[in-house]
Design goal:
416 residues, 8-stranded parallel barrel, TIM Barrel, Lyase, Ornithine Decarboxylase, Chain A, domain 1, 12 helices
Length: 416
């Protein structure tokens, strides 16, 4: 647990960021990102592990550059994420492209850019083989039929999931590979997000390791990610040290006598950036009703949709009055929908004008934000390891909403 001095120092930094750049405001802590990366990397000291940052969690170019500087690769799920990764300085071979439900045209674009292609359905695999044969290597995403994850919207490895090729179709996959002479260099799986128990990864390891024996040129086995992060002070998280110990033992059992051992890849997104991010908002109105005291803030689900989308919990604290008497508030946004950040939260006494911090907002906060109600998206700042607050994305303006709209002027009314 952080010391009181550290907490006060962090609160003061957040208040300074709000004062300098206004609210709502996304604030990211670079030191936290570094710590999370090193924690995961150090959990696997005795096997060859590579970390590919799942950039869909947070795609700001400065964040991408930071993970590049730490030695990470990139996991991209759209051609635009691939392009952002290249702009940020990642080499093509450092980027794994794992789309879902895209056309062969997008696959071709990614091949032309030189990134590693991950194929998650038989139709695209056949088209890929017909076109490229063994000239372009690829990875295959398998669906292990393991149901894991903290919410049904983020469970991706079960039998009804749209992701991956069923492990029970492996024999057919091998026929396609042999018929088209496809060069498969990796196998991939991802069972879901917010996985607490390491057993889901270990079950997947058995499937991936056993499947690996069917391929001759494998360079890596990719476990995706899904590590659970703590959302509350007393919350639990995936024990990556325990996972590292158990997975290393299993890896050595399978590949201890193999000359060309495959690398193990992970694709953390939320694990690396969730705790690094805070959304700062200002209280617009305190509204007591017959049943509830609402704290209405100058943000909403257009900036952080996870509470409404996933029933996600985000701790909320009053930075302006951290030591005040505790009262119960329901923190709501300004969007014309049911728009709740936190229901029945115990917070320090709150008044209009106070600055609230919504924690664990680094992952899928800004990246899932939108302009609903024609609201503008907030600015983003990065606190570097010298506690310098740096603007890394400007706040939107009305011009941003209008930029791509087309104004059609009708000169003649054809109806008279």
């Amino acid at each position: 647990m952080e010391s009181t001095n550290n907490l006060n120092s962090n609160n003061n930094l957040l208040l300074r960021a709000a004062a300098e750049h206004g609210t709502p405001l996304y604030v990211y802590n670079q030191d936290t990102m570094t710590h999370k990366y090193q924690t995961l990397k150090n959990a696997f000291p005795n096997i060859p592990v590579k970390i590919k940052y799942a950039c869909k969690a947070l795609t700001n170019i400065q964040v991408l550059k930071h993970f590049k500087s730490l030695g990470a690769g990139l996991d991209a799920v759209a051609i635009e994420e691939v392009q952002l990764g290249l702009i940020a300085g990642f080499l093509p071979e450092e980027i794994l492209f794992t789309p879902n439900g895209v056309s062969m045209q997008e696959i071709n674009e990614a091949v032309d850019l030189g990134v590693v292609i991950n194929i998650d359905n038989i139709s695209i695999l056949e088209q890929f083989g017909n076109h490229y044969h063994n000239a372009v290597p690829c990875c295959i995403r398998l669906n292990p039929h393991i149901e894991a994850g903290g919410h049904h919207h983020i469970q991706t490895g079960h039998i009804d999931s749209k992701f991956g090729i069923s492990i029970y179709q492996l024999r057919h996959v091998l026929r396609i590979i042999n018929a088209h002479d496809i060069n498969v260099i990796g196998l991939h799986m991802h069972t879901g997000s917010d996985i607490l128990n390491s057993n889901a990864f270990l079950q997947g390891a058995d499937i991936l390791f056993e499947s690996a024996s069917q391929f001759n040129n494998l360079q890596f086995l990719d476990f995706g990610s899904g590590f659970k992060v703590p959302y509350k002070d007393d919350d639990v998280a995936t024990d990556v040290q325990e996972l590292g110990t158990k997975l290393t033992e299993k890896y050595n059992d399978y590949f201890g006598n193999v000359d060309n051992k495959p690398e193990i890849w992970f694709e953390p997104g939320k694990f690396l950036v969730s705790e690094a991010g805070t959304l700062l908002v200002q209280v617009n109105v305190i509204k007591p009703t017959m049943a509830t005291v609402f704290a209405g803030v100058n943000s909403g689900q257009n900036h952080l949709i996870r509470p409404m989308f996933y029933d996600a919990w985000h701790d909320i604290v009053n930075l302006s009055n951290p030591n005040g008497i505790k009262r119960i508030y329901t923190v709501v946004g300004y969007i014309c929908e049911t728009d709740t950040f936190g229901r029945d939260r115990k917070m320090s006494e709150t008044k209009e004008g106070d600055i609230l911090a919504i924690k664990n907002a680094g992952a899928y906060g800004y990246s899932m934000s939108n302009n609903y109600n024609s609201r503008l998206r907030p600015a983003e700042v990065l606190i570097n390891n010298n506690n310098k607050i740096q603007l890394i994305r400007k706040r939107e303006t009305l011009d941003d909403l209008l930029r791509n709209q087309v104004n059609i002027e009708t000169e003649v009314n054809i109806y008279g």
